[in-house]
Amino acid sequence: MISESPWDLSSIVPTLMEFRHERDWEQFHRPKELAAAIAIEAAELQELFLWKEGECAVEIQDDEERMKEISDEIADILIYTMYLANDLGINLNEAISGKIEENSERY
Amino acid sequence: MISESPWDLSSIVPTLMEFRHERDWEQFHRPKELAAAIAIEAAELQELFLWKEGECAVEIQDDEERMKEISDEIADILIYTMYLANDLGINLNEAISGKIEENSERY
Amino acid sequence: MISESPWDLSSIVPTLMEFRHERDWEQFHRPKELAAAIAIEAAELQELFLWKEGECAVEIQDDEERMKEISDEIADILIYTMYLANDLGINLNEAISGKIEENSERY
Amino acid sequence: MISESPWDLSSIVPTLMEFRHERDWEQFHRPKELAAAIAIEAAELQELFLWKEGECAVEIQDDEERMKEISDEIADILIYTMYLANDLGINLNEAISGKIEENSERY
To answer: In this predicted model, what pLDDT tens digit does every residue of A4-53 receive, in sequence order?
Structure first.
């Protein structure tokens, strides 16, 4: 199930869609709801850092349990983002490339 | 610059890292800050749906300007998520696959 | 229009309700929508602090423009929270007092 | 401890400050951290409405357990907002009144 590149999410897409279809959850996944779900998961990710100032990447990496929690929240954000992109027919690759180009001109 | 699969983000990673390095922005990108940035971008995505109830995917897809706005916010969320995953050495592919497996057992 | 205590919001409530009624906005103010609006305003408040680490209250207070921005976002959060509390018949005073008591036992 | 008006939060302020002081939590309450805490609590409030479309106030009011959850999250949002306003010397009453006036001109 796992693709060779850590950044290639292609092989996950069919599994994601199947997972949702089997549970008949498409009916809940209106774009607006998915956007809300992404924001809620993003807040859960942020909560893992609340009241912890000045922590750097290396300190976090040494804490296996925290790494698992962070990794899980990132996965949740991406899962809902992939559903939304799929449902609206947004090409993630092009969306990001386009945004980087715009940012390159701006900054 | 654009990879063939819309879900394969591999080819964007070097561009993203270069973009940040050229502007010397690594110093601002502590994991906690990136998590905050993801949450803020997720709220901006959500704002595009505020006060608009019951809209379905097709209606949104017919509105080119909205599609561009949504696509841009999704890109922003993904860009910060990719920086965070890169900096913590999180494999997106494995993170998502692992989460889907856990969810499959739970639901 | 302004009450004497900075923490007494009573005198604002009728103005808030009138403002909404005149614009016929009750129809948009379902509890779920108000909760989304609060979260979006909270992200806008948070954005004022993004990439700015270690800043203390005094530094912020010296910057009149920032104080105005922060004050405006706090107002937006409170306005939507007051609408939601009003519509659901939640007594803010009791809600907060109850929560402090629970927290006192827990921590 | 409870003031007579549900919207008069004055009598809660000393209790809030004492609660924090006794636990020596002022050190964690930088403005930026409080803003993050508000956003996280706002997401927890929003989560109570996720996947539930079309619900109106009356239906929610009939569900005592949900009312308690919503009330608790509103309290959390307000508690952090009051700490932030207190620490920055922001007058809530004036902030909200000012914002309503601006909005009245705009809409």
So the answer is: 699 999 999 999 999 999 999 999 999 999 999 999 999 999 999 999 98
What distance in Å separates the CA atoms of residue B105 and residue C1, rounded to the nearest whole number?
A: 57
pLDDT by 10s per residue, chain B, length 107: 444 799 999 999 999 999 999 999 999 999 999 999 999 999 999 999 999 988 899 999 999 999 999 999 999 999 999 999 999 999 999 999 999 999 988 88
Euclidean distance between CA atoms D41 and D30, whole angstroms: 17
Judging by beta carbons within 10 Å of its beta carbon (0-12, 13-18, 19+), is residue A28 exposed, middle or buried? middle
Q: Which of D36, D43, D54 has its CB closest to that of B36? A: D36
* Chains contacting chain C through 3 or more C-beta pairs under 8 A: A, B, D
Cα-based distances in Å from C65 to C55, C62, D64, D100, D106 = 16, 9, 43, 19, 20
Give the containing element (helix H, strand E) for A3. none
Which residues from B are below 8 Å from D53, CB to CB? 53-54
Q: Is D8 on the interface with C (CB under 8 A)?
A: yes
Rounded to a whole number, what is the largest CA-CA distance in chain B?
45
For residue A36, list chain C residues with Cβ-Cβ distance below 8 A.
36
**Of A35, D93, D52, nearest to B47 (Cα)?**
A35
